[in-house]
Amino acid sequence: MINELLRENIKNMQPYSCARDEFKGEASVYLDANENPYNGPYNRYPDPLQWKVKEAISKVKNVPVENIFLGNGSDEPIDLLYRAFCEPRRDNVVAIEPTYGMYKVCAAVNDVEYRKVLLSEYFDIEAFKLIDSANLNTKIIWLCSPNNPTGNKLNADEILKVLQWFRGIVVVDEAYIDFSDSQSFSTYIAQYPNLVVLQTLSKAWGNAAIRLGMAFASVEVIEVLNKIKYPYNINILTQEHAKKVLANAAQTTQWVQAILNERTQLIDKLKELALVKHIYPTDANFVLVKVDNANIAYNWLVNKGIIVRNRSSVTLCGDCLRITVGTPAETAELIAALKDFGSVFK
Ligand SMILES: *Cc1c(COP(=O)(O)O)cnc(C)c1O
Questions:
Q1: Is the backbone peptide bond immediately before 281 cis, with ω within 30 degrees of 0?
Q2: Ligand 1, residues 70, 81, 148: which to mutate, most atoms within 8 A of Cβ?
Q3: Which of 106, 171, 203 to mutate to test the pocket of ligand 1 (most atoms within 8 A of CB)?
Q4: How far away, in angstroms, is 74 Cα from ligand 1 center?
Q5: Residue 125 contacts residue 155 (beta carbons within 8 Å)
Q6: Which of 32, 53, 62, 63 is 20 to 30 A from 242 (CA-CA)?
């Protein structure tokens, strides 16, 4: 099934074979990869398939190692999915709107038509709308739950309907799943070989700088991604650090709890401000807030050295700011600045 979706050139190509693909295991003398014999351990190429890191992720996320792909951030599997499945100028993808900007950027880079399907007024999906806008050349449907920049999780039954009716790849980007009470769609990968679930160490895990994104999918999809990725896409510094981070999942749980508590505080304080018109429900570590005049409020905050995301030009997000939940001190600064703004512009 997955094979039928693949681009012809990807189906037919031979992947790069590196020295460490040919010989696996432990040896005492490595003279096979033209490495410098000095400066261990950085002189050696890292494990191209990152098995140790995957074992750690497997334990934490309850996904078998063979169903895991690791990328240089989620950005890498997003781009690789286009390159594997979408024939430039012929195929298309369907995505919810508004959502994370990278799906559209990667479509443009790969010269693939990007079809937008508007979310409902509650920022939720209707499966039939997504299916209706797909045709025989639609290779990927992009979903994001909890969604960015709206913050809400999508209706799980509707996602399942998409999986039941659409034969192409269905991506569920779960970058914010650790902040949500919803169950990961990774539990469905055995049932739907066309499902790809994306997660990342960049948000709840507090490690945006090391660039580690995860894709959970059927062995067929994982093999395709492995076939076309750069051979050593995850460097040794990232692999080593990721193992430490994953061994300390309790830290992440603590951070998530602190952020969720602070999110409640932030929302309560925002509610008291006259300039705040609406606070959208959130299942993530940010809130989308409709304000009186987002552009002016945004610039006011910038002048005070406080940067939020101005989403006012995004579809369905007129006059909206997206505010990340920070520390209690950061919340206090933000609220004080917004109060000043309110008293100047009333
Ligand atoms: C932040 C974010 C990511 C993370 O991307 P990385 O490349 O892993 O840092 C992925 N998807 C969404 C929707 C995001 O908001």
A1: no
A2: 148
A3: 203
A4: 6
A5: yes
A6: 32
Dihedral pair phi/psi, residue 76, rounded to 5°: -65, -55
Q: 200 CB less than 6 Å from ligand 1?
A: yes
In angstroms, the CA 289 to CA 276 distance is 7
Residue 313: Cβ-neighbour burial (10 angstroms; 0-12, 13-18, 19+): exposed
User: What pLDDT sits at residue 346?
Assistant: 61
Closest residue to atom 2 of ligand 1, CA basis: 175
Domain boundaries, the chain: 2-247, 250-344
Cα 25 from Cα 179, distance rounded (Å): 39
- Nearest protein Cα to ligand 1, atom 3: 175
The pLDDT, as a whole number, for residue 22 is 77
User: Ligand 1 centroid vs 162 CA: distance in angstroms?
Assistant: 22
Residue showing tokens 């074992």: 55
Domain 250-344 has CATH 3.90.1150.10: yes
CA 6 to ligand 1 centroid distance, Å:
25
First to last CA, the chain: 60
Write out residues in the chain with pLDDT < 50, as ranges: none
Cis peptide leading into 88, omega within 30 of 0? no
- Confidence (pLDDT) at 24: 75
Angle at 285 between CA 163 and CA 234, to 5 degrees: 70
98 lines ligand 1 (CB under 6 A): no
Instruction: Find out whether 279 and 264 touch, Cβ atoms under 8 Å.
Output: no
Tens of pLDDT, residues 288-323: 999 999 999 999 999 999 999 999 999 999 999 999
Beta carbon of 213 within 6 Å of any ligand 1 atom: yes
What is the position in ligand 1's atom list of the atom closest to the CA of 213? 8
Please report the pLDDT score of residue 122 as a whole number: 94
* pTM score of the predicted model: 0.97
